[in-house]
TrEMBL record:
Record's protein name: Conserved hypothetical phage tail region protein
Source taxon at top rank: Bacteria
Annotated organism of origin: Nitrosomonas ureae
Molecular functions (GO terms): structural molecule activity
Amino acid sequence: MAVQRDNPYGAFNFRVTVDRFGGNADATQAGFQEISGLGMEVTEAEYRNGNEKENHVRKMNGIYKASDVTFKRGIIGWTDFYDWLKDVRQGSQSVRSNVTIELMDEARTGPVMTWILINAKPKSYKGATLNAKGGTDVAIEELVLSCEKMNLEKVEDH
């Protein structure tokens, strides 16, 4: 059963697994500093009957689409995401994968919310900005994934 809380969960405890890379939540695949863009949008179709007495449109639900999701991390020499993008670029037919993003509780005993990106694939990659003056800056790379569908699941035991 879900527990009612007065305080929201912190956004700093999360875990990412990718089916393409084994999908094992217990094995570290890559640490991310930031994930942004989780969302979806429902389009609306506007329609009006020609014999309507009032001069306004009806707004009916149309198709929906999931937003692109951006992942940022410090460069650690792990190139699997770049290799995945290379497969997309070269036209491989087996590039889609499910990506699971879990928001963890404070004790990291388990997830409290889970976002699943269905049939995700890399859309773009940006390498780090390199600057010799910034001696304390971390080299950050960015990967944008597009997906066909996003599911949101609430974990019931937290």
